[in-house]
Design goal:
The chain is of the alpha/beta class and about 240 residues long. The protein has a single domain, classed as Carbamate kinase (3-Layer(aba) Sandwich). The protein has a 9-stranded mixed sheet, with helices on both faces. The longest helix has 25 residues. The chain starts with a strand and ends with a strand.
Length: about 240
């Protein structure tokens, strides 16, 4: 395997599948994702996951509609906890030892996030799910993924999406959109490409943490990426 320790960033919408319906959790989708992750776990890869909450509540969307931004972001953080528990349940039903570490203390259902504890869980071959973002409003789960990846010394942030990489335009709307195989962090920032938010990209750039954007709905792609196959788009220091 090319990577021995990864941070997988999943959107909340990913749990509801590829259809137009973006709410709720699809048991079929979460089961398929779990089996894909188990494949790389069985090969000895240490896996950490950050998952969004957009299938339940998105903080920014709530604030646009007039809700207080801090309140809305806290609701979004709680949505990520719901998704994390669902993912933990799915993992454990197929034999993956899993721990949920939350940026907001809720001891009855998750461990509080402690960096050394997270690393120790990974060393003990447990899948670690980071819930509640970084525990503060005004920061996205993209930023949480970048931060946690650096804190646990992951080798790459794998951003799972519904498209097969980064394009110069929305491939769902623009027929001849151009796909990039490799980008620098500055390319992504200067072009305004929707890879991750600017804070997350800047954090990865400052610490030379590669970001790999790929299509998670293509069966076997997680394993292919971890094995080093050229899939998706790599955002790195140099082209």
């Amino acid at each position: 395997m090319k990577y021995k320790r990864i941070l997988l960033k999943l959107s909340g919408e990913a749990l509801s599948g590829q259809g137009t319906e973006k709410n709720g959790i699809s048991p079929e989708v979460i089961s398929e994702l779990s089996h894909e992750i188990k494949e790389i776990y069985d090969l000895g890869v240490e896996v950490a996951v950050v998952i969004g909450g957009g299938n339940i509540h998105r903080g920014v969307a709530g604030s646009v509609k007039g809700m207080d931004r801090t309140t809305s972001d806290h609701m979004g953080m709680l949505a990520t906890v719901i998704n994390s528990l669902a993912l933990q349940d799915s993992f454990e039903r197929i034999g993956l030892p899993t721990r949920v570490l939350s940026g907001i203390e809720m001891n009855q259902i998750a461990e509080p996030y402690v960096r050394r504890r997270a690393i120790r869980h990974l060393e003990k071959k447990r899948v670690v799910i980071f819930a509640a973002g970084i525990g503060n409003p005004f920061f996205t789960t993209d930023t949480a993924a970048a931060l946690r990846a650096n804190e646990i010394n992951a080798e790459v942030v794998m951003k799972a999406t519904k498209v097969d990489g980064i394009y110069d335009a929305d491939p769902m709307k623009v027929k001849d959109a151009k796909k990039f195989d490799t980008l620098t962090y500055m390319d992504a920032l200067n072009r305004g490409l929707q890879v991750m938010d600017a804070a997350a990209i800047s954090l990865c750039m400052d610490n030379e943490m590669d970001i790999l954007v790929f299509n998670v709905f293509q069966k076997g792609n997680i394993k292919r990426v971890v094995a080093g196959e050229k899939i998706g788009t790599l955002v790195t220091t140099k082209k």
